[in-house]
Specification:
Blueprint: H1 11-27, H2 35-58, H3 63-89, H4 95-117, H5 119-122
Helix pairs in contact: 1-2, 1-4, 2-3, 3-4
């Protein structure tokens, strides 16, 4: 494994920021009455993924804390999936948009779980 000196270089972090940006653009077309409910929820959960990854990096000295923050990031991915599926159910996004977001969420989930499974390599 190539040594990563900063969380900003982690592929999972880069993808999480891309996902948050894509979610923001998708939700711009949501109805105004959803501004403080669905729009706010999905934006916050998607933005939290990268924040949790950054926090986990700062906690690498303590492996259990590192894993805990990555688990929180994974939970935020699951929440984002839930909200994007609700948006699809409400016909606010297309099937193509749904598929793209769900694929990105699945990729982030796999990467997070891989890091969790190899946490000792990150916490030296």
């Amino acid at each position: 494994m190539t040594f990563v000196s900063n969380y900003k270089n982690l592929e999972v972090y880069i993808l999480s920021r891309s996902l948050a940006s894509n979610i923001f653009l998708l939700t711009k077309k949501f109805p105004k009455e959803e501004m403080y409910s669905l729009t706010d929820q999905i934006r916050r959960s998607s933005r939290s993924v990268g924040a949790q990854i950054a926090e986990s990096w700062a906690k690498r000295r303590y492996e259990k804390h590192f894993i805990s923050k990555l688990t929180d990031a994974d939970a935020e991915i699951m929440e984002t999936q839930h909200w994007i599926e609700i948006a699809f159910d409400l016909k606010l996004i297309s099937e193509e948009e749904l598929t793209k977001v769900l694929n990105d969420c699945a990729s982030i989930n796999r990467m997070l779980n891989s890091i969790i499974n190899k946490s000792s390599q990150f916490c030296k």
